[in-house]
Amino acid sequence: MLSGMRYSFECKTAAVIAFVFLLQDFGIEGRLIQGTNVNLGEALQFLREYSNEGSEMCFRLNTARWNYATNMTEINKKRMIDEQTHKAKFDKVSWKKAITFDWTHLSDPVAKRQLKILATTGRASLNDEKYNEIHHLVSEMKDVYSHTQVCPFNNFDPQFCNISLEPDISRLMSHSKNPAELLHLWKEWHDKIGPRLKNKFMRYVQLANQAARMIGFSDAGDQMRHVYEDAVFEREVMETWRTLEELYKEIFTYVRRKLLTKYGPEFVRENGPIPVHLLGDLWGQDWSKIFDILKPYSWSKDVDVTSEMLLQGYTPLKMYQLAEEFYTSLGLKSMPPEFWKNSLFDKPNDRKIQCTASAWDFCNGVDYRIKQCTKVDLQDFVTAHHEMAHIQYYMHYAEQPYLYRDGANPGFHEGIANAIVLSISNPTHLQRIGLIRNESNAFETNIQFLLQMALKKVSYAPFAFLVDQWRYKVFKEGVKNMNSAWWDLRLRYQGIIPPDLRTEQQLDPMSKKHVPADIPYINYYIALLVEFQVYESLCAAKGHIGQLHTCDFYKSREVGSILSDAMQVGKARHWKDVIRMITKGQSDSISASSMLKYFQPLQQWLHLQNTNEEIIGWNVSSDDRMLFQPLQSKSNSVRYATFPLIILLVSGLII
Fold first, then answer.
1. What is the three-state SS of 488-556?
2. Residue 643 has what pLDDT?
3. Which of 7, 412, 509, 628 is within CB 3.0–4.6 Å of 487 for a Cys-Cys bond?
């Protein structure tokens, strides 16, 4: 394990580590842990060894993970856990070596940045006992989450209480129109997850904060944000949400009126927030699942070409071959032979596997794979292109050092993959490849397509934004009143309330896997913004004329050249430099303007649909807040609205 790193760190740590907490004068770098070694040669040698051994460790771990994901036996699970344990030890030893260097005073910017990344990520600052404890806690929380099952509606016989999140609960939440059944499923899942994980999560918060503060951060949230290497990151992110808020509230108002018509005032209050269980999933993050309720033009055809795919004899293999052809049409890379040999496109019948689609990099520059239990339908056709975008990214930055084999920031991988999905999933592209036979530019068709996209994208934005706002708050202010803080944020940003009384004995954020699994969520919000920003820039490079949502950059070598240059960089340059590359110097920051441009025709249509509404937004009554703050005294109603502006400003202050 890393020649030159086999020290007795326990006895030398005090001599070589300098804790620098000069809070008042030197900014974040002046606060971070570092040592005294300024020998550039030693630093470069360590980083070379780390890159080589990190790649080998990645290969071994991903091989074990792949073997378990595609054949879920106890033997394969044990081997995976063993490799995860080795990886944790490797990370800790690497961190201890990295912090012996005074990286702020090294002359080589590459060495300085890589050492800084190594020194400021992860939880290796904890002693061995606590380091193992936090890894064990996260593993336990993930295990509870993945094995939780609930009872079916109107049947609490224990032998039938075996309904899992995927695919059972998700399918029922998206298809059932019985509000009693939806309430049952929502309550069962949240009540069985949150209370079981609350104490574990509280201990996790304590340990995560300890690890962050030992490195020099104010808390674990501060450490999470630091990966973006941007002093004004929080301010810029908040500004993007303010930009999107008006569009979101137009969609919200339209959806609420449709739900009021469907379920009546017993379930949906006119001008009030929406109960979360009526929106198509457990979290109210993707509203497209209830499109049948929201569809504005019943006679207009949806853009779903599944029947045409079946008619033309599509297979999972053909779907991936078409995905490859899309990328080679841009001048990007073909999939290597190992990809076709080792990937898994069909669900096997002889063993249990994890069916969630995923792209894999085995860190050896040769072996790249996709795992998907592929169905012949439009959704999986889109997924095939999405996952292959990740493979393209892996292949393009394969020559970078191990630490730089990643997206430019934590949202870039998803952002670029989804930008490509915007091109291949619109009617223009589907017609070009023969899946839509008759071109239709009817106004109704365009509006329905944009509405479906908005129900997936715009409706997701506030949820993606607020998950980590809650987590930052917990890290900063402590674990008191965590559940009411969660619903405060959901009411403020989404206009959503729980369908049932919630108390502090529950912990509803744990219902979303990323929270107990210790996975940052703001990355998904950043990815959403990057997706539209990259898409608009690529469409401009292609020379697209017309409404943005009709752009398809299939066969554009200009687009391929931009993507290739951006992906080759990996994480070797600051993400703002990569945005500058993609936008040809027009921007160096995240922005929501491209998203607004994409949905501009829909926003105009929604404004007309909502003309007779009292407000564009939601009023909050004392009864709404009493659902999750039952001990508070009743207060006056608060209005969350877009118009007039003074009401929006005041409501932001009140809540």
1. HHHHHHHCEECCCCCCCCCCHHHHCCCCCCCCCCHHHHHHHHHHHHHHHHHHHHHCCCCCHHHCCCCCC
2. 40
3. 628
Residues of the chain with pLDDT under 50: 1-26, 633-637, 642-655
314 is in an annotated binding site: no
Block residue for tokens 């689609």: 357
Whole-angstrom distance, CA of residue 130 vs CA of residue 136: 9
pLDDT digits (tens, 9 = 90+) for 438-495: 655 688 889 999 999 999 999 999 999 999 999 999 999 999 999 999 999 999 999 9
- 228 annotated as ligand-binding: yes
Catalytic pick from 387, 413, 531, 544? 387
Both structure tokens of 614: 């009292």
In a domain, 17, yes or no: yes
Tokens of 631: 């001990």
Q: What pLDDT does 416 receive?
A: 97
- Please tell me whether residues 408 and 489 are part of one structural domain: no
Q: How many CA atoms lie within 13 A of 77 on its CB side?
A: 8
**Per the structure block, which two tokens stand in for 106?**
């090294």
**Residue 440 shares a structural domain with residue 471:** no
Say what the pLDDT of residue 654 is.
Answer: 32
Domain that holds residue 344: 314-451+523-600
Question: Could you give the CA distance from residue 328 to residue 555 in angstroms, rounded to a whole number?
Answer: 8
Residue 210 placed within a domain: yes
The helix, strand and coil proportions of the chain, stated in percent and rounded to the nearest 5, come to: 60, 5, 35
pLDDT for the residue numbered 317: 96
324 phi/psi in degrees, rounded to 5: -60, -40
From residue 604, alpha-carbon distances to 246, 270, 282, 576, 607 in Å are 12, 22, 30, 32, 5
User: What are the φ and ψ backbone dihedral angles of 369, each rounded to 5 degrees?
Assistant: -140, 160
Q: What is the pLDDT of residue 158?
A: 77
Task: Answer yes or no: is 307 within a domain.
Answer: no
Alpha-carbon Rg for the chain, nearest whole angstrom, is 25
Q: Has residue 574 been placed in a domain? A: yes
| Contact by Cβ (8 Å): 628, 498 | yes
Whether 405 contacts 570, CB under 8 Å: yes
Is 390 flagged in the annotation as binding?
A: yes
The per-residue pLDDT for 8 is 38
Q: State the pTM of this model.
A: 0.90
Give the model's pLDDT for residue 437.
78
Give residue 239's Cα distance to chain centre.
19
Active site residue 387: yes
Question: Which among 133, 338, 514, 613 is annotated as catalytic?
Answer: 514
- The DSSP line for 565-612 is HHHHHTTSS-HHHHHHHHTTTS-SS--SHHHHHHTHHHHHHHHHHTTT
Is 229 a catalytic site residue?
no
Say whether 386 counts as a known binding-site residue. Answer: yes
What is the β-pairing status of strands 496-497 and 274-275?
parallel
Neighbours of 439 (CB within 10 A): 10
